[in-house]
Amino acid sequence: MKLYTGLVHSPIKNKNGELVTTSVTNMDVHDISRSCKTFGVEQYHIITPLQVQHQLIQRILGHWERDENGAYNPDRQDALGIARLSHSIEDSIKVIEEKEGIRPYICVTGANFESFDLKAEEVKEKATLDKRPIFLLFGTGWGLHAKALELADYHIEPLYGAHPEGYNHLSVRSAVAIYLDRIMVRS
């Protein structure tokens, strides 16, 4: 099975449910790249329409491409090699479709989904049976906006913790690692 991930910074909801674009963070670029590389993800798409954020990401990625920095930490350089910049979810889908020769299944995640189509453990089985790649999208801010959710073929079951009062607010970096483990290893 071929798995692609996308960290979406737009279209995103703020706490009032309004459409916003969130900021890219250095930790998300590094840590999610490392998780993706560890679990065999084909590409990690960082999705933002803002050119200033593209410049920031290119600076981060470029830092580890330089000989002295890459020599100091070749594992980081290797992990960041799967990161791709994208202006939109649709642009990323086109890149994946061109590479694979078929449109991927678009799977979305969210901590507040009231209903879902698949459990994380079922994603690999679905993709393998149908011989289609998966593009797994993660939201930032307060989650993926309806404009992003409309593109989805499948909503994946939220991650539930064990907090007795129902607290459920993982960092996106943690959520990515847990989903990748459940999809790529545990299924």
Globally, the shape reads globular
Supply the helix-strand structural class: alpha/beta
How many structural domains does the protein architecture include? 1
Regions with little confidence, pLDDT below 50 for 5+ residues:
none
Q: What is the subunit organization of this protein? A: single chain
Mean pLDDT: 90
Q: Major sheet, described briefly?
A: 6 strands, parallel
β-strand amount = 15-25%
- Fraction of residues in H or I helices: 40-55%
* CATH architectural designation: 3-Layer(aba) Sandwich
Rounded to the nearest angstrom, the radius of gyration is 16 Å
Number of strands: 8
Strand order of the largest sheet: 5-4-1-7-6-8
- Per the CATH scheme, the topology name is Alpha/beta knot
CATH superfamily: SPOUT methyltransferase, trefoil knot domain
Briefly, what CATH class?
Alpha Beta
Whole-Å distance between the termini? 12 Å
What is the H/E order? EEEHEHHHEHEHEHEH
Q: Please give the count of helices.
A: 8
